[in-house]
Amino acid sequence: MFLIDKPIARAGIALAAALLAGCSTTPTYPPAPERTGQVEWNYLIGPGDTVQVFVWRNPEVSGSFPVRPDGKMTMNLVEDLQASGKTPTQLARDIEKALGKYIQEPIATVIVGGGIGPFDQQIRVVGEAAKPQALNYREKMSLIDLMIAVGGLTDFAAGNKAYILRGGEGKQERLGVRLEDLLKGGDIAANVDMRPGDVLVIPESLF
């Protein structure tokens, strides 16, 4: 029989407890709410979008125009017009104002193609997702929609330790989510609504 020194035994127990704590799947952050309520959200034009401009009775200035990486666009008779960060309606009013120098009482309509949006409205997935990436937010987008888009989890993901970074600078909060329960256990209660600008962080499992 081997005798184990009590201090060594206590140290071993403490180490085992620490390892078990590290394996815990319980998030250390407040859980993300299942429903976020009505989100006041309007699509904003972003770099990479293409806008179709129709000016009533003036086909010569109408057309399809890309939004450049600097957020501006150039169309017939109008150069370097700021487009990024505006709704299609706001951009239409700006186009009417700019064209007013050349056309009497222009009426413009803007239709957006591409649907990329500005960076601060995109949802980012980082860490142990199969395909980490930034995605454009869509109305009523949920966590399971997001995980389908990124191809699920890797074999090394600690899915139940994942969290969402939500909010702007100075008021950002961490909200825990249970990805393993949702994707592998089929627990639909683990599905939550996403918001524009959310960042989903999926850490790597230690074991």
Descriptive key words:
alpha+beta, Outer membrane lipoprotein wza fold like, wza like fold, 2 domains, three-stranded antiparallel beta sheet, 22% strand
Protein model, in words:
This protein has helices at about 5-25, 90-100, 145-150, 180-185, and strands at about 50-55, 65, 70-75, 80, 110-115, 125, 135, 165, 175, 200. With about 210 residues, it is an alpha+beta fold. The strands form 3 sheets. It has a 5-stranded mixed sheet, with no helix packed on it. Strands 2-1-5 form a 3-stranded antiparallel sheet, covered by helices on one side. Strands 3-4 form a two-stranded antiparallel ribbon. The protein folds into 2 domains: about 30-35 and about 120-200, Roll (Outer membrane lipoprotein wza fold like), CATH 3.10.560.10; about 50-115, wza like domain (wza like fold, 2-Layer Sandwich), CATH 3.30.1950.10. The longest helix is centred in the first third of the chain and has 18 residues, at about 5-25. The protein has 4 helices and 10 strands, in the order αββββαβββαββαβ. The chain is elongated and about 70 Å long.
